[in-house]
Amino acid sequence: MFLKDNMDKEFYNFNTDIKEGEKGERIIINFLENHGFKLINDNKDNKYDVKMLNNDGLETTFEIKTDVFCYPERIKEIGKLKIHISAHDTGNMFIEKECRGKLSGISVTKSKWFVMYYPYLNQAWFIKTKDLKNLIENNQFYITEKSGDIGSNTKGYLINREKFKNYFKIQKIDTIWEN
Q1: How far apart are CA 93 and CA 118, in angstroms?
Q2: The pLDDT value given to residue 10
Q3: Distance between alpha carbon 23 and the CA centroid of its chain, in Å?
Q4: What confidence tier does 179 reach under pLDDT thresholds 50, 70, 90?
Q5: What mean pLDDT do residues 37-66 have?
Q6: What is the DSSP string of 140-158?
Q7: What are the phi and psi torsion angles at 35 (to 5°)?
Q8: pLDDT higher than 50, residue 51
């Protein structure tokens, strides 16, 4: 949706975000399967998003978040119309901690791994969840409030990607993201 690409806050939509998140999960599952993992199940509670069997036969869980609001300059074609979309990248990674008055995201996940997927940058940033929690605990990251869709009062940490990229294993993801 063009308006969403322009970051108009009033057009955040939880239902659209869920669909994009699930699409991102499928892409990361495919990436992991191409690297020897086998899907056991996907999960719809706050404990983890997917459970996979790793190369050693051990169960491993992943929390997967997709950030479609970080993108390079590009041309978007809608039918015969070509629209120039300016780049948008604050340089930060948003890690959700609370939504709609309840703990969420990093505050409740029981996953072994946390993955931030940036489809327009063709990157997935992997970090062990315990290491991400330690990173947050040992730094004073800015906490956003009233993020997400209107009324959700979503709160989260902003982590400067460039400054903290050495804590993550960054993987190239070649899948083309279409919306």
Answers
A1: 10
A2: 41
A3: 11
A4: low
A5: 94
A6: --EEEEEESSTT--EEEEE
A7: -115, 25
A8: yes
Polymer length of the chain: 179
Per-residue pLDDT averaged across 140-147, rounded? Answer: 91
Q: Which two tokens stand for residue 39?
A: 């899907």
Both tokens assigned to 164? 């903290």
Q: Rounded to whole angstroms, what are the CA distances from 50 to 29, 96, 133?
A: 8, 18, 19
Instruction: Extract the tokens encoding 124.
Output: 């997935």
User: Residue 15: CB partners within 8 Å, gap ≥ 6?
Assistant: none
Structure tokens at 42: 């996907």
- Whole-angstrom distance between the N-terminal and C-terminal Cα of the chain? 7
Residue environment code for 131-146, b if the CB has 16+ CB neighbours within 10 A, otherwise e: ebbebbeeeebeebee
Task: Please give the pLDDT value at position 7.
Answer: 41
Lowest pLDDT segment from 20-34, 72-86, 90-104: 72-86
Structure tokens at 148: 């997400």
Q: Bridge partners of 147?
A: 154
96: phi then psi, degrees, rounded to nearest 5 = -65, 140
Which two structure tokens, joined as six digits, stand for 110?
Answer: 């029981």
- Alpha-carbon gap, residue 26 to 163, rounded angstroms: 29
Token representation of residue 95: 């890690």
